[in-house]
Amino acid sequence: MTDEGRARPKLDTSIAHPARVYDYWLGGKDNYAADREVAERVLAIVPEAPRSVRANRAFLKRAVRLTAEAGVRQFLDIGSGLPTAENSHDIAQQVRPDAHVVYVDNDPIVLVHGNALLAGTGSTTVVQSDARDPEAILGHPEVRRHIDFGQPVAVLLLGVLHFVPDDQDPYGIVARLAKAMVPGSHLILSHLTGDSDPENAKRFLESVNREARAVVRTREEVQRFFDGFELLDPGVVPVDRWRPDGPDAMKRFWLWAGVGRKA
Known about the structure:
Helices cover about 40% and strands about 15% of the residues.
């Protein structure tokens, strides 16, 4: 870890952050009053939120394992959130002990906790950067030290792009990342949707957008992120139905998910 990576960043706990809201839903302790206020407002509208977040984490584990089994040894996890049990590097390195993983998040507390978690782990690191600035991510010295973009890489964007409204060019962001990915690379993505409950989705956005600029997108809009990739079966589906480990499925779903391979 470089000196830049070790620097303790400033933390504003008066503003809610998605990583800490998710932490609250998962029963974690790394959240603050502002995060809990937003989390409770959302729960009043979407009581399935904690289950959706857990389903998203389960999707991550299945997708990372599949990608590693396909031979990928490099993982760039953008908008990674706070560390939980069985992180991307845990899963990838179970399959590929030599796998390199870089976590990226714009929340300073993720950097602090990530540094503590990964102390002494030479093949895995965490950097503070923003998904809306792909050039900064791709050019970050820690990213470049761990990721060889001349070799296949899996880029993870789970629960991130719904915080990038259309006027901030989310499709251009993914296209820029895709341009840096060689054939054999994979895109692992999940995205908030209101397709299964448009009325509550509208109420959800009205509540959340007091603090953030969240958007919901349709299945067709989410599929657009995979332009230039071959979608793996079963395509873009509800997050808990992407190659599930068991039969349990939510009646109301809030996340589309998919994995694409660059040919």
